[in-house]
Amino acid sequence: MSTFGTLFRVTTYGESHCASVGCIIDGVPPGLKLTAADIQVQLSRRRPGQSDLTTPRNEKDLVLIQSGIERDYTLGTPIGLLVKNEDQRPHDYTETDLYPRPSHADYTYLTKYGIKASSGGGRSSARETIGRVAAGAIADMYLKQIHGIEIVAFVSSVGKISVPSTTISSTEEDEDHVDDVLNPEYIELLSTVTREKVDEDVTRCPHAGTREAMRARIIRAKEASDSIGGTVTCVIRGLPAGLGEPVFDKFHAKLAHAMLSIPATKAFEIGSGFSGTQVPGSRHNDPFVLKENGGLTTSTNWSGGVQGGITNGEDVYFKVGFKSPATISRPQETAQYDGTPGTLAARGRHDPCVVPRAVPIVESMAALVVMDQLMIQNARRATAAPLPPITSLPPTMVLPPGNK
Ligand SMILES: Cc1cc2nc3c(=O)[nH]c(=O)nc-3n(C[C@H](O)[C@H](O)[C@H](O)COP(=O)(O)O)c2cc1C
Q: From the CA of 360, how far away is ligand 1's center (Å)?
């Protein structure tokens, strides 16, 4: 359906060419200082027409607060946010009255509902993600201000051009030889990257050695009336241990759900991901070490900050794969709705590559997951807090009082 989250609950509405898109958010804590400008920052990073690498559809995407906020403070009641669709051009899509676009959602929406929006992608359009980004911006702000949690996403590949991320290599003598599970440069990037650094370049790739090649690759796709895919990596720093609900709502399962609900996503990897499958356990395990101020940390973090579906206090990092956008103006042999073979060369305005614009969407969906999981864990803790401390059980079974 169109709702995501349990305690921090977001419902999005709107199609690509209707009057407006937006969301209702339930569960925002009362008393949070919040203005439209706070929400606008992420919406402006998502909006179309930002550079020659994105669709030229010209939308300002200015957010209008409808409810739940008075005199710049949240009331604790549902927050309604609205963004007008201003630059609709439904006539751009007349070919798609005849043709379901290959690998777009026209055919499946029509098959499912028996009726579909007359133009554009309707509800499957990336316009829908405006509601997610607006809601995510609120969660993101609360998480940063109150808990110091930082969420930063960046473009990690375009087509075959990738920031250096894997380094596994085997030798003939030792098939288990591993230089490193992931590239040290990539690990360094995960611990230092900021949104400001990401936004220094229109590709939203913070790695100086690769971004120019990425930019050129997108331009080549655009000039060939074609499109190209890529990946977005995201890191969440400063997360407390203990988030995630075994067994079906594991933290990384929630993240995967959130990410794979973004249009055009095809893949999700947490921590070492697929690279980790090539490495023996003796190199892949994250050994425990004593933290400076007591308690345990790990000396490596190939787990990506999640073990048993629960955050362990290390950085959570993951990668999301986005396909090459389906709508291309290069002619394609396909079939009309009635089965007549034909050639479709889509008109309209399209993204040659979605990853630069997907960055704030990934951050926002991550913020929604963290906020929801944090509220669930806080509710559990608050419920357990009045219980008397358990002193009769060994420390392998129960944390000492004060450590809970
Ligand atoms: C930021 C963003 C921009 C997008 N822009 C386009 C676009 O211009 N053209 C297109 O065909 N698909 C675009 N998409 C992807 C489609 O919405 C998506 O492929 C389509 O709904 C089919 O869904 P699926 O790819 O998840 O199966 C975009 C996705 C995102 C996240």
A: 15
Dump pLDDT digits (tens) for 308-361.
Answer: 999 999 999 999 999 999 999 999 999 999 999 999 998 877 899 999 999 999
- Tell me how far apart the alpha carbons of residues 398 and 404 are, in angstroms, rounded to a whole number: 9
65, part of any domain: yes
Return the residue whose CA atom lies nearest to atom 5 of ligand 1: 351
Question: 119 and 327 in contact (C-beta within 8 Å)?
Answer: no
Paired sense of beta strands 316-322 and 310-311, if any? unpaired
How high is the pLDDT of residue 251? 98
CATH number of the domain within which 316 lies? 3.60.150.10
pLDDT at 403: 61
The pLDDT tens digits of the residues spanning 46-92 come to: 999 888 898 877 789 999 999 999 999 999 999 999 999 997 665 55
How many domains is the chain partitioned into structurally? 1
**Mutate-to-test residue for ligand 1 from 109, 351, 363, highest number of ligand atoms within 8 A of CB:** 351
Active site residues: 17, 104, 351
**Measured in whole angstroms, how far is the alpha carbon of residue 334 from the centre of its chain?**
32
Q: Which domain holds residue 185?
A: 3-384
d(CA 135, CA 268): 22
pTM of the model: 0.97
Q: Confirm whether 390 is domain-assigned.
A: no
Cβ of 362 less than 6 Å from ligand 1: no
User: Does residue 76 belong to any structural domain of this protein?
Assistant: yes
**Would you state the structure tokens that stand for residue 238, as one six-digit string?**
């400063």
